[in-house]
Amino acid sequence: MDKEILNIRAHHFLCMQGFQGYGYSDDFVAHMSKIVNYIRENLDCKINLINSCDEICSVCTNNKNQQCSNKEVDNMDDIVLSKLELKKQYIISAEDAFNLVNKKLKTIEDVKDICGDCRWTEKCLWYLNRERIFNGTVD
Length: 139
Ligand code: SF4
Description:
This protein is α+β, with helices and mostly antiparallel strands. The protein has six helices and five strands. A three-stranded mixed sheet has the order 1-2-5. Strands 3-4 form a two-stranded antiparallel sheet.
């Protein structure tokens, strides 16, 4: 990754924590793995939080001319930004972005507001862990 600031859509800070190798195509999975590994190994890297197609979307089959055709994700970034009390194009370190989403999304309602219509909830470790935590089945 050679960019000084990475464009990442806000809801992808949830997806990246839940990612375990599932996705829309082999190319998408390989590309997302590369980005997730890079960010995990470079937590101090600068992120531009956005609400439109980003680095991860760049090889996605749902990306049609930089617009996501997947209607279920339409509002997810705006809801995340609103719950974080941030405006789009906020510059933040990856580490702070991960910490912020985990701190600010405090209830199962917060999580369901964002991820309720997502098709990946059964495969997303972040969603499954949050569900277990908020249901009181984990410490
Ligand atoms: S489904 Fe939409 S938001 Fe998700 S990676 Fe693909 S283009 Fe991006």
